[in-house]
Structure formats: C-alpha cells, structure tokens
Amino acid sequence: MDKLLIKGGNRLQGDVTISGAKNAALPILCAGLLTSGDVQLSNVPHLQDVRTMLRLLAQTGLKVEQNGDKVTLNGANITSLEAPYELVKTMRASILVLGPLLARFGEAKVSLPGGCAIGSRPVDQHIKGLQALGADITIEAGYIHAKCKKLKGTRIVTDMITVTGTENLMMAAVLAEGETVLENAAREPEVTDLAHLLVAMGAKIDGIGTDRLVIQGVEQLHGASHAVISDRIEAATFLCAVAATGGDITIRNTRTDIMDAALDKLREIGVRLTVGDDWIRAQMDGRPQPVTFRTTEYPGFPTDMQAQFMAVNTIANGASRVTETIFENRFMHVQEMNRLGAAIETDGNTAFIKGVEQLVGAPVMATDLRASASLVIAGLAARGETLVDRIYHLDRGYDRMEVKLQAIGANISRIK
Ligand code: EPU
Q: Where along this sequence does the record place binding of UDP-N-acetyl-alpha-D-glucosamine (predicted)?
C-alpha cells in the first residue's frame, strides 16, 4: 500500500494547475448513459474514482475512449443495466447510474451502497424521488431494483439537500414524460455543471443554480461536448497548504466565482489573495489566524474543506471552533492530527482547536479522502517527518497531489 513521506517546513512557491472536479466528472460520466450519441468530455481529472466509474460504465456496454484528460462516451449499445456490489462498495457515487439507466431503459439494478467512513449516507431520497416519478422499486439481496414503463414528471421535495440525489433525479427527469419540479435541490456548482451538459444534450431545465429545478422531459437526448468544471475543493486544498506553510503560490485553471466561502476564510486566516478570472495568487507569511466556521450546503462553507481548514487551525495563533453539519462522523482526522501534536477536542459535531506553535511529524493514517488531504497539509507544516499511510483515499480524489506539491517546493515523496 502506497504511503506519502513528508519532510515538513518548506515554504511553497510557484504555480499549480487545478484539474477538473471529481464531483462534477462522476455524474457527468453517468450522463453518457442517457443518449446513443457521442458525449465528448474534456478536463476530466486523473483519479481513481474516475477510473472506477469508467470501469463500471464500460461493463454496462458504454463505449469509452480516453486520451489524456479527454473522454468520449457512446451509449448506443448498452447491454447491462446493473451496477454490481464489487464496484459500488468501492465508490458510492456508482449510485449515479440508477437515474439515467432507469429513465432510458426502464430498468436498473444497482447495489445498495453500504456504510461509509464519514457517515451512514443513506440513499432513501434517491429512491423516494424515483418512486415519485413512477418507478417500481424493490430492495432485494442488497440491490436496488428499479423498473418503470415510462417515468412521469411530478413535484419532488427532498427531505434534505442532497447533491448526488439531485443529480440522479435530474438525470431521470430529463427523459420523463411532462414536467418535473425538484424542490430543495442542491445548488453545488457540480450539480450546475451537470445541468449545463444535460442542456447541451437537448434537455430542458430551468432554474439551474437555484434550489428549484423545473425540467420538461424530452423524448431523447443527443451527443454533446463539455469541459468539466475546475475542482474548487482541490484549489482550496492547495490554498490551505500555503496558509499552513507560508509562501507564494498561484493556482491556475480555477473558477474563482464558486469559492467565496473558502476564500473569505483564507483572508481571515491572513492569506493575501489576488484574484483573477481563472487564477488566484496566495501569499502567506507568519502564523495563521484561527477561523471558526460551520459546514453547510453551497454557497456556504463546504464539508469537503472542513478537515483541511482544521489542519490550518491546529497551528493558528489562538483558538477556533469547527462545526460539521452535513456528515455525522467526519472528524476522523482529529485523532491523527493530535498525534502530530495538535490540541483538538470534540463534543458531538463540534471540534475545539487550540492553536499550537508547531506540529511535530509522526506516522499517521488516512481515513477518508479529505482527511488524507488535511494530514498532508499538517505534515507539510510540521517539524520533521510525517508518514501518511493508506493514501489510496487521497488518490481517489486528488490528481497526482504529491507531484503538484513537489513542483511548488514541498519535500514529499510516494513510497511504494
Ligand atoms: N442523505 C440522506 N439520504 C439521501 C441522501 C443524502 O440522508 O438519500 C444525507 C447524507 O447522509 C448526508 C446529507 O444528506 O448527511 C448530504 O449528503 P449528500 O447526498 O449531499 O452527499 P453525497 O451526494 O453523497 C456529495 C459529494 C461528497 C460531498 C457531499 C456534500 C459526490 C460524488 N460526493 O456526496 O463528496 O461531501 O456531496 O457536499 O458528489 C468528497 O468529495 O470527499 C465527498 C465526500
């Protein structure tokens, strides 16, 4: 199992090019199932989760051609309507094939995702929404088996805001008969990016970017081209790294208009930001100021940045409080950071952090994707050596992170 060895203390300096967003690429790849035409994608990130999704899609019969960050999909010959347990268990986002397969072929069988390190993460809202659209759904032998003649548009109000739930229901509704109104829809930029692709494929969607999506179903969709939106979480992760180590970096190929919550907190930390259309220069000297925040849905502070900002808080000049409201178990990095000398206590969904002068390197264990990134940041700021184990979590969602960090002066290497 690969590990990352980090010798902390280097200031970061130079340019980093941000990749396409994992959480946009995954639903967008599934949209290839909705048409027999070619869906041509660019800015697709090199990630384990993307490879897993392409494997899953290929075994349905979707034709996949890949060339660097470009992927062309063709769904003219779909032969299997099933997402098997072996793949779903490694990636929950596999649930995103359910809506498109059901809408286009009238049937889908998708393994029920099991538990997850960061929370129980049920998919009841996906199921409830598809049932409202007229699907007949049974849960049998660990599989969701959905069938329908033709989905029929309706009004759906989800119990909570769900990102992949909104995406699944939107992909189902675009081929349903009549009008579907999705209330309480997620407004995350990745949902919006999927909606833009669907419109390019011939879907009729109003209210894109709002919490009320109004979809007029169409008979069929056609092929289209689309560039996946830049990864705001990867971008903010690099900005947190420089907040922790000090230095002067410029991130490129980014979208500055979808990162307000993170950028505001970085300014509060003391990072000097110069923001262009698709780049951000971040300059940092001295100790970070502590920042208190609670995670919430977009456009609020993203749960996917909670751990990385906590890493910065561990060495801040004072105390802070971090409240996680989206997932019930997303503090597993806390014990690992404490192994590096951080002073964090938790009470329910709130972490209380007393900034310490200096972290000291130690072996630590990555437990999930964003927790892994936070341990890398802590390791970059720590004195001495930090060995981050189980970095397969990191590889799921960051495109060659250690290579990008090496290029801006970090002393980090992958140990096979
Ligand atoms: N929820 C339910 N029932 C449902 C759906 C969601 O109870 O049917 C709950 C979840 O358990 C959670 C909350 O609603 O407590 C929000 O979950 P959501 O459905 O929005 O999360 P998701 O769609 O499973 C996506 C991202 C996550 C990101 C969350 C929140 C993808 C592939 N994943 O997950 O990304 O944290 O939205 O923004 O888009 C990551 O990239 O590290 C990651 C975990």
A: 92, 121-125, 304, 326
Structural domain including 267 reads 3-19+230-415
Atom of ligand 1 nearest to the CA of 327: 15
User: Model's pTM, two decimal places?
Assistant: 0.98
Q: Strand, helix or coil at 163?
A: helix
Pocket test for ligand 1, best of 26, 95, 120, 121 (most atoms within 8 A of CB): 121
Compute the CA torsion angle 6, 12, 15, 21 (nearest 10 deg). 50
| Per-residue pLDDT tens over the stretch 216-247 | 999 999 999 999 999 999 999 999 999 999 99
Give the total number of structural domains in the chain: 2
Q: What pLDDT, on the 0 to 100 scale, is given for residue 120?
A: 80
111 and 82 in a common domain = yes
* Angle between helices 124-132 and 163-173 in degrees, nearest 10: 20
User: CB-based contacts of 170: which residues, under 8 Å, 6+ apart?
Assistant: 99, 182, 185, 191, 194, 195, 198, 205, 213, 215
CA 377 to chain centre: 18
